[in-house]
């Protein structure tokens, strides 16, 4: 079998059927992988979503490429994608599990704290789980599938409750990656910085802007990021800007000059140098190579 590589050709944006879902039911979907694959290998070429996406595999093999990072699909794995991320997927024929899709509006009537759970859980794309924890997760997801299938009174509230528990479980699991990296305060501030990056990195804001939004000094923010990731805040910001540049280069037909302006660069030539310094290749060359 040929290697499954990242191929980008006019990457489409997928939605959940309508530009703006008319009812809560239109903004949520869950399907079994056996139904999706139909007993055959499933391949999805590169695309991006305007909704949240979870892939849960009880048994599986293949490869999942999310924002240019390749992850193995295996037993007891969960993938969580945010709107706007680019991904490409190959699933072997005998893979089992579930796929969940939902728009942010599905949670508009949920209590305020739920959005925070969603944001934190979705900040991690790849969750390789131990069998015990996976069984807990799978029980929750199976309950979500059954509630959606029957559609009895109050099913939406029950689904939200199960998803809330699921997200809390994932957040606890994600916290393992921070063990030994600092206390709870440091972890929380790093997560706050990452959330701001998701929102503002496409505008290429300086470190001082993020520090101000977090009510920290530049020195304090750098110390937090250095402790958690071994990089400066400026380096992490640059990583996010490069990622957004790659998305735009491959998902749109915008000129390099227009992308540079959209990302906050006053001079396209500076953007080209910035991109090449961080990737080793010029923007247009990157676009041609991946297309």
From TrEMBL:
Gene3D superfamilies: Homeodomain-like, Jelly Rolls. Keywords: DNA-binding, Transcription, Transcription regulation. Residues 191-289 form the HTH araC/xylS-type domain. One of its GO terms (molecular function) is sequence-specific DNA binding. PROSITE patterns: HTH_ARAC_FAMILY_2. InterPro entries: AraC-bd, Homeodomain-like_sf, HTH-like, HTH_AraC, RmlC-like_jellyroll, Tscrpt_reg_AraC-type_HTH. Signal peptide: none annotated. PANTHER family: ARAC-FAMILY TRANSCRIPTIONAL REGULATOR, TRANSCRIPTIONAL REGULATORY PROTEIN. This is AraC family transcriptional regulator.
């Amino acid at each position: 079998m040929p290697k499954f590589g990242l191929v980008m050709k006019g990457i489409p944006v997928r939605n959940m059927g309508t530009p703006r879902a008319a009812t809560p039911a239109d903004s949520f979907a869950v399907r079994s992988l056996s139904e999706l694959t139909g007993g055959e290998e499933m391949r999805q070429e590169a695309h991006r979503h305007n909704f949240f996406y979870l892939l849960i595999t009880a048994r599986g093999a293949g490869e999942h490429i999310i924002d240019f990072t390749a992850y193995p699909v295996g037993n007891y794995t969960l993938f969580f994608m945010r709107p706007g991320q680019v991904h490409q997927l190959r699933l072997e024929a005998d893979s089992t599990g579930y796929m969940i899709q939902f728009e942010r509006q599905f949670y508009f009537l949920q209590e305020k704290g739920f959005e925070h759970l969603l944001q934190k859980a979705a900040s991690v794309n790849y969750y390789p789980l131990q069998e015990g924890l996976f069984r807990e997760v799978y029980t929750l997801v199976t309950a979500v599938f059954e509630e959606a299938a029957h559609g009895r009174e109050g099913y939406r509230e029950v689904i939200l409750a199960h998803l809330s528990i699921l997200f809390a479980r994932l957040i606890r699991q994600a916290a393992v990656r921070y063990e030994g990296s600092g206390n709870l305060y440091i972890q929380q501030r790093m997560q706050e910085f990452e959330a701001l990056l998701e929102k503002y990195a496409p505008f290429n804001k300086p470190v001082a802007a993020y520090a101000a939004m977090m009510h920290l000094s530049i020195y304090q923010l750098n110390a937090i990021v250095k402790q958690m990731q071994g990089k400066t805040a400026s380096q992490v910001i640059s990583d996010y800007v490069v990622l957004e540049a790659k998305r735009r280069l491959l998902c749109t037909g915008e000129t390099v000059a227009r992308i540079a302006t959209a990302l906050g660069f006053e001079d396209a030539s500076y953007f080209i140098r910035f991109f090449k310094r961080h990737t080793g290749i010029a923007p247009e060359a990157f676009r041609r190579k991946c297309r």
